Amino acid sequence: LPPRFLAQDESVARDVQRLLVQFQDEGGQLLGSPFDVPVDITPDRLQLVCNALLAQEDPLPLAFFVHDAEIVSSLGKTLESQAVETEKVLDIIYQPQAVFRVRAVTRCTSSLDGHSEAVISVAFSPTGKYLASGSGDTTVRFWDLSTETPHFTCKGHRHWVLSISWSPDGKKLASGCKNGQILLWDPSTGKQVGRTLAGHSKWITGLSWEPFHANPECRYVASSSKDGTVRIWDTTAGRCERILTGHTQSVTCLRWGGDGLLYSASQDRTIKVWRAHDGVLCRTLQGHSHWVNTMALSTDYALRTGAFEPAEASVNAQDLQGSLQELKERALSRYNLVRGQGPERLVSGSDDFTLFLWSPAEDKKPLTRMTGHQALINQVLFSPDSRVVASASFDKSIKLWDGRTGKYLASLRGHVAAVYQIAWSADSRLLVSGSSDSTLKVWDVKAPKLAMDLPGHADEVYAVDWSPDGQRVASGGKDKCLRIWRR
Amino acid sequence: MPQNDYIELHRKRYGYRFDHFEKARKKEARKVHKDALVAKKLRGIKAKIYNKKRYTEKINLKKTIRAHEQKDVKTVNKIHDENGLPSYLLERNENQRTKVLTNLLKQKRKNKVGKWNLPIPKVQALNEAEMLRVVKSGKRKRKTWKRLIDKVSFVGNNFTRKNPKFERYIRPSSLRFKRANVYHSELKTTLALNIIAVKVNPQSNLYTHLGIITKGTVIEVDVSDLGLVTQSGKVIWGKFAQVTNNPELDGCINATLLV
């Protein structure tokens, strides 16, 4: 008998269909050549094959997608609902998952009193070593994380501290108040650094530092205010470098992108794109029909953490070691990894209950409009690997959208009042949300459902943050106490 | 003033006077007039105190009456906090919708009829002589069946006049408008939008049909450049607005969007 017949007998005996597959990465690049696999192959075996093709030293955990559906149990099961063309080569898209796993926080380890008025903003430093909080009692407080006790109290503002922002190297903290003043603090001594930056006529709505890979000295910070202007400040000289005017109403959100562009969203329904180094207006993105409340960039997390790699985090958070040049290169490589092939993507949420996905460096028309929320959207955030967008809204739900196309993925329901703020864990698998109903909830994004419910606050939760090393979550609210949650 | 409960005891033993309740009711009814008389006659500091007391009483009375009348109360309070608010809560109002449990059927019927919460709920009725001016026609200029519309009107894009010989209502082209200045109460801006149609003129159906726009008319405007979108993703291109001025006196149509 010819060998062909024998081979046919074998597969007939096994009674399993075989398919031609080709691995493809998210950007569309093909990996290896097409080969055939039995239809009942599982994700583990696919992972072995893919890792072998990628030829990396350490095997990466991977997730596989066929026609936007994830392969969970076996290839056959996923294809059951779809039309399988055995003639053509099937494209399987592989997505590398984060190597490290962040565990869900389960308990409140400490409730830090100290502020005499509501805690308005909370932020971990880029390495997770320091924690800072701004409050309505006009002080900024630093907290020691190893002992979970107060560290420094910084007095200097004369009105509520509305927003705080860490410089990407973790050595300075900028805080903006309701009088329009910006102060800089040193976390290791608790003292003010440099001069008070005054110039805005109304309150500060957002602060954003220049990215680490653009300038490792962390010299420039941009601030947006209710008076409709954006100012770029030189922190070493202590003066205003540039004033960007153009918005007709309050600027609600500000982001300094990694490509040298500055994005500002405003209540006049537009988003303006500026060139950071000379302050020229590049583009105006129009489309929203009510105030634009919030914005997020796909590379936000990489810009926030700079040269710090969450996978290399240790139990005791350390300052970054190495020369400025080394750190700058590390930050740049991390930024390029998250950015991928295309330009940065921007998602904006508004009072008109919809979100827009833009590619602002290329086009002034939006990529998609994401509808579905039933009340205004308070915050949007890209996941650290920029694959998923989460939007928190006053309609008590959080919606997940695909980060590349804007397609709706899932709704996370559980809160009983408006969801105010959300924070992603560093491995993009977990999401924590703080709400007006005084609880925090940790959500598992893969099987979109509730992972942990964290009650404990006595009143509304105004701010949440997840530390970049994944160990702690900090939350503060109207009940004036700051809570730290750990595993 | 009784120093003990001998009055109650007497009432328990022998009952009330035969006209007791009648007298009490009438006395209470007269009290209103008596108080008014006292208010008129008092002078000086006593008058001030008395009038102040009456004023507060009247306010409370009006409040209770209004509370009873309202079925769906939407009070808008500014979120007030001395402690400190995050920037996303500054300048926001708390919409407290207190829906009193009413007859569900009544609510449904109201929605069906299409009753809106209009900014101008009632409009003064206009004389027909004001709206329509008589135009004399015919060889001897004695025929008076033609009317000239004195108010502003809206005619659609594809409007052509009827044969002038048979035209009963004349809409002068100088008083035809295509755009309205529409005020959006949440955005607090005024936009110049095109009119799509006249929905309803509160004066009469005839005026609605003719497209006459007076104060209080509900018009449909083209809001496609605002970019409004329904939940399912469909674009809203027409919304209702109510006219708030007298367009024939001002030369422009000002309206408020019914959000």
UniProtKB/TrEMBL annotation, chain A:
Q: Where is the NLE domain?
A: 20-79
Q: Which GO terms describe its biological process?
A: Notch signaling pathway; ribosomal large subunit assembly
Which parts are the WD repeats? 112-153, 154-195, 197-243, 244-274, 370-411, 412-453, 454-487
Q: Which InterPro entries match?
A: NLE (IPR012972), WD40/YVTN_repeat-like_dom_sf (IPR015943), WD40_G-protein_beta-like (IPR001632), WD40_PAC1 (IPR020472), WD40_repeat_CS (IPR019775), WD40_repeat_dom_sf (IPR036322), WD40_rpt (IPR001680)
What are the alphabetically sorted keywords of the record? Notch signaling pathway, Nucleus, Repeat, WD repeat
Entries under Gene3D superfamilies matching the protein: YVTN repeat-like/Quinoprotein amine dehydrogenase
Q: What's an example GO cellular component term for this entry?
A: nucleolus
Q: Which SMART domains match?
A: WD40
Question: Which Pfam families does the record match to this protein?
Answer: NLE, WD40
The main location is nucleus
Please state where this protein is localized. Nucleus, Nucleolus
This protein's source sits in the domain of life called: Eukaryota
The protein's job, in short, is:
Plays a role in regulating Notch activity. Plays a role in regulating the expression of CDKN1A and several members of the Wnt pathway, probably via its effects on Notch activity. Required during embryogenesis for inner mass cell survival.
Q: What is the annotated quaternary arrangement, including any partners?
A: Associates with the pre-60S ribosomal particle. Interacts (via WD repeats) with uL18. Interacts (via UBL domain) with MDN1 (via VWFA/MIDAS domain).
Q: Which family does it belong to?
A: Belongs to the NLE1/RSA4 family.
Q: What is this protein called?
A: Notchless protein homolog 1
| Biological source species | Piliocolobus tephrosceles
From TrEMBL, chain B:
Gene Ontology cellular component annotations, sorted alphabetically: nucleolus; preribosome
What is the annotated localization of this protein?
Nucleus, Nucleolus
Give the record's family classification. Belongs to the eukaryotic ribosomal protein eS8 family. Ribosome biogenesis protein NSA2 subfamily.
This protein's major location comes to nucleus
A biological process term (GO) from this entry: rRNA processing
Task: Please give the name of this protein.
Answer: Ribosome biogenesis protein NSA2 homolog
InterPro entries cross-referenced by the UniProt entry: NSA2_fam, Ribosomal_Se8/biogenesis_NSA2
* TM segment ranges: none
Function text: Involved in the biogenesis of the 60S ribosomal subunit. May play a part in the quality control of pre-60S particles.
Source organism, top-level taxon: Eukaryota
Q: Which Pfam families match?
A: Ribosomal_S8e
Please list the coiled coil stretches: none
* Originating organism: Piliocolobus tephrosceles
UniProt cross-references to PANTHER family, sorted A to Z = RIBOSOME BIOGENESIS PROTEIN NSA2 HOMOLOG
Question: What's the subunit arrangement here?
Answer: Component of the pre-66S ribosomal particle.
Q: Which UniProt keywords apply?
A: Nucleus, Ribonucleoprotein, Ribosome biogenesis, rRNA processing
